[in-house]
Amino acid sequence: MEFLVCVKQVPDDSVEIHLNPETGTPDLSQADPEAGAFDTYAEELAVRFIEENGGSVTVVSAGTDDNKTCLKNSLAVGAGAAYLIADEGTDCLDSAQVADLLAAAAPKIEEQEGKKFDVILCGKESTDAIGGQVGALLAEKMNLPLVENAVEIKSTDSGISVKQETDTGFMMYEVSTPAVVTISKPDYDPRYPTIRSKMAARKAKIPTLTLSDLGISDLASEAAVSSLGFAEPKTRQAGIKINESEPEEAVKKAMDQMIADKAL
After folding, report:
1. DSSP secondary-structure letter at 65?
2. pLDDT 10s digits, 215-259
């Protein structure tokens, strides 16, 4: 089975991010770039699959030259090849434009790799914009079947079976290939790279595909969806502490405060 995993580079979501007071934009100076969490689950699922069944994993990302950081990390944890889509304007795209680039890149990468992709994987959503639209748009543009929020993929005689996570349990689907599948969180975590694999990935050359390479003259002018601004959530006021030593006094004070606040 041949997998193409679509990866987006995002700020480290374990870092608490605030707005820059001068620019009004998120201050990412302390957040290192990394692959989105659901994209790493997608790659781990694909790597586990080929370890058991054979095949290969290729990763692709659209953005700037900085995206090679997360692509090299992807190589270090099991991907066999990586491609970057980078050109003027690819640093500020909406979901539809990203899907356009990926749809054009997939056959180009197939041509260069000399193989056809059976499954194209995307994380169910990015951990920065949290749009959750690229996988569905990509399937539509490539006229391929789509299953979203998958946590498991198995091979069948006619294609793949996909276990989809829902709010109330799981659904099982059988899908012909090629297909697009978006990945939720399976019951395992992505692996860590070894020192040897990290060293090898650092030396790897990652081909860059430009708009011209993909036969795209421009990015359909402006994005259909754009960000108008950012705002931090309002800070909650600290609660009132009751420090009475006697339980009766503590209860009385609490009741008096609730009456004053019209909670009773």
Report:
1. G
2. 988 776 567 787 788 888 887 777 788 888 888 888 988 898 888
Q: Residues 118, 2: contact at Cβ < 8 Å? A: yes
Residue 64 lies in a domain: yes
Residue 199 is assigned to a structural domain of this protein? yes
Domain span holding position 247 = 234-264
Q: Is 227 part of a structural domain of the chain?
A: no
Joined together, the tokens standing for residue 113 give 């790799």
pTM summary value: 0.85
Give the pairing type, strands 170-176 and 179-183. unpaired
Q: Which one, of 115, 114, 118, 117, lies nearest residue 158 by Cα?
A: 118
Q: Pick the more confident residue, 1 or 238.
A: 1
The residue among 97, 90, 117 whose CA lies nearest residue 106 is 117
Q: Which of 231, 230, 222, 232 is nearest to 92 (CA)?
A: 222
67 touches 86 (CB < 8 A): yes
Q: Quick one: 98 and 208 in the same domain?
A: yes
Q: Is the domain of 138 the same as that of 263?
A: no
CA distances (Å), 137 to each of 96, 142, 143, in order?
6, 9, 10
Domain count across the chain: 2
**Tokens at 36, concatenated:** 């989105």
The string of pLDDT tens digits covering residues 36-81 is 999 999 999 999 999 999 999 999 999 999 999 999 999 999 999 9
Instruction: Let me know if residue 228 belongs to a domain.
Output: no
Q: Are residues 172 and 264 in the same domain?
A: no
Rounded distance between C-alpha atoms, residue 112 and residue 115, angstroms: 8
